[in-house]
Write a structure and sequence with these properties.
- The structure is a single chain.
- The protein has 13 helices and four strands.
- It has 346 residues and is of the alpha+beta class.
Length: 346
């Protein structure tokens, strides 16, 4: 019998619901971490931010808020264990609903998640060999010279200040193209060093662009010939990510997202409808990559995963370790799949 008292119900379109509970003793072990985390963001008179004693913190945070924080941590950790125990091959971001929460009783919750649907792949190696192409990039001298000219103009504008207009620049205003100018732009001793680095960067940018085009051609042909039923939950998850990224990009420019939408005469729901086809394609690609990895028995190297997860957690202190690991493993598997497909046409 499951230690989580689990009840699983199959739903249409490769989805299922998981009703489970975490016993009260286990749930209570998350209290200390929850109080500490919430206290770090609490500002109280007489104490530096995040430095108030736990007894003081508890007087200023409602019990239900602490329980909800505990629930987030507990479910995040035990969800993976439930999947392993029940041998559920879940994918995408699950929907979580807390059904019973209080001090001294088990935490009850319901999770709706998508599971890997049946995927019938075409001969993806044959497609990659036929549709892919070897990337050969050349960089013209003119491209390097144009970039240097742009750098000279930017330098001249910077020297003259924000009031000076770009269209007012004359050739005599530009810095002389010599070794002294190269040194001002970084760790370059000569113009030859600068030109070489610019050429390398242009080549790298072109290679990345052509590689993306090549990958898109290959994967679009593969998914066109793949038989699959996409779970709605996975499409909605992709839509959430797309909308979140758009909102983050807009707010990072100092704009209000709702004001931005009003200006465009759009709504969040309208954007979801606009993005749906692209979201379905992204979801399909994710499932195809997963199926190819399974067929090719591709798994990420443990050391590489640990290194990347550690880097993420060191950089983003609030990151969820479980989500970070899933993200890194997915990224490394995708990288290996693309290398496999690109090798077919090299």
């Amino acid at each position: 019998m499951s230690k989580y008292n689990t009840k699983i119900t199959k739903l249409p379109k490769s989805s299922l619901s998981i009703e489970a509970e975490i016993n009260e003793e286990t749930f209570e072990t998350y209290r200390g971490k929850a109080v500490k985390h919430m206290g770090e963001h609490l500002e109280l008179d007489g104490f530096r931010k995040g430095k108030a004693p736990e007894a003081v913190i508890l007087k200023h945070i409602p019990e239900m808020a602490i329980l909800e924080e505990m629930a987030n941590d507990a479910i995040s950790e035990h969800y993976i264990k439930i999947l392993e125990e029940e041998k559920i091959d879940a994918i995408g971001r699950p929907e979580v609903t807390i059904t019973k929460i209080a001090k001294g009783i088990p935490l009850s919750f319901k999770i709706t998640t998508a599971i890997i649907p049946e995927v019938t792949l075409p001969d993806y190696k044959k497609i990659a060999k036929k549709e892919g192409r070897k990337i050969e990039i050349t960089v013209e001298d003119r491209e390097v010279l144009d970039t240097i000219l742009t750098l000279r103009r930017e330098h001249a504008l910077k020297e003259r200040g924000p009031e000076f207009k770009k269209e007012d620049l004359k050739d005599e205003d530009l810095p002389v193209e010599n070794n002294e100018f190269a040194k001002k732009l970084g760790a370059f001793e000569t113009m030859e060093d600068l030109s070489k680095k610019i050429g390398e960067n242009i080549k790298l940018e072109k290679e990345n662009h052509e590689r993306e085009k090549n990958r898109l051609t290959i994967i679009e042909k593969i998914i066109a010939d793949t038989k699959i039923e996409i779970p709605d939950l996975l499409v909605e998850s992709e839509l959430d990510k797309m909308l979140y990224k758009m909102e983050s990009d807009i707010t990072s420019m100092g704009l209000g997202f709702d004001d931005y939408l009003t200006h465009l005469k759009k709504t969040r729901e309208g954007l979801r409808n606009e993005f749906r086809v692209d979201a379905e394609k992204r979801a399909t690609i994710e499932l195809v990559i997963h199926e190819i990895a399974k067929k090719e028995n591709i798994t990420p190297e443990k050391d590489a995963v640990e290194k990347e997860v550690t880097h993420i957690l060191d950089t983003y202190k609030e990151a969820d370790p479980v989500r970070a690991r899933v993200y890194v493993e997915s990224l490394l598997v995708s990288k290996s799949i693309w290398e496999l497909l690109e090798k077919q046409s090299s």
